[in-house]
Give the backbone structure.
Amino acid sequence: MSHDVSHEHEAHAHEPVGYGSYILTWLALLVLTAMTVTAAGMHFGSLSVLVALAIAMVKASIVLFLFMHLKYEDRIFHRLLMIVIAAMVIFIGLTFTDTLFR
Amino acid sequence: MSSQSHSIALPNHKDYQGSKFAIWLFLITEVILFGGMFVLYSVYRSEYATDFHHAAEELNTLLGTINTLILLTSSLTMALAIAATHHGNRKLSLTMLAVTVLCGVAFLVIKYFEWGAKIHHGIYPGSEFLLAHPKGEILFFGLYFTMAGVHGIHVLVGVVLLTVMFLRVANQPNGKVSFVAGHGLGQAEGGRIAIVDKDGKTLWTGEEIDTSIQRIDISTRYWPVKERFRVIDFNLLENSGLYWHIVDIVWIFLFPLFYLIT
């Protein structure tokens, strides 16, 4: 019977997400797209890259956590994501320590 | 009886968590693939900032924005297609999958016209027109064609994958519950299967279940309803969805870095 319970648990790892919350997620992504297009036209100078990247990261997080259900996943999936982000930061950071001081 | 219906290990046992973990590992290799190109982009952009800004003016911001909206919408319909399976709604799931595939095709068609116009103007890797421009602009277009091209191939793969998923969902067999020898069938040994109505009247009795019986199947008539939904039956659809979302995420970064730096 214990087997039974675990299987039931697997059948519904989390409560199904309603259609409405996905539509809200989509609307948030559209607003952020409008923001990034508007911000690009406002000439923030060297800050504009940072603004664009910040908005892109917020959008990516929304897709990851809500559309891709990372919010409901085990901690191991969150750690995996942290490792990837750390790896990318190290890649880019180390590359610039080379190219900037040549 | 009904409480045991899910406790029977099916012959074609699948590991839901394992398959999800595997697809996430694959998605990470995708991030690293594009990540390498983003490293190249950031180094050259910091070195040739003005050239990048001039070159980016050549790109059609309107088409880029439209493609962004198309991909975001396709991500929504993808998520809805999976949510529809949770609610046991096959028709909605198929409709949403079809919209997702159409969005992917629309994205590629727009890319085709966009690139067609560029090539018509003589802008393509190694073209004489482009080689007459400053070094940074050549690099910008080299990166643009490579990164948007690799991304486009991913969209194409996604379109094919989701078409296959559409056919799978359309042909998803009706539900089946199996009692297999060695996994709970022993409890039924020596007995018979009976169908009993609400008044306790036996409508039908089957053969005696002896040791020669290896499996008892109960076929259900409908596609999984909400109560009988099992994620494992749709794990390929879900994994395809995760792939589609990561393709969207790559574009979320490509769009501002190439189209919006004027």
Notes: Residues 1-12 of chain A have pLDDT under 50 and may be disordered.
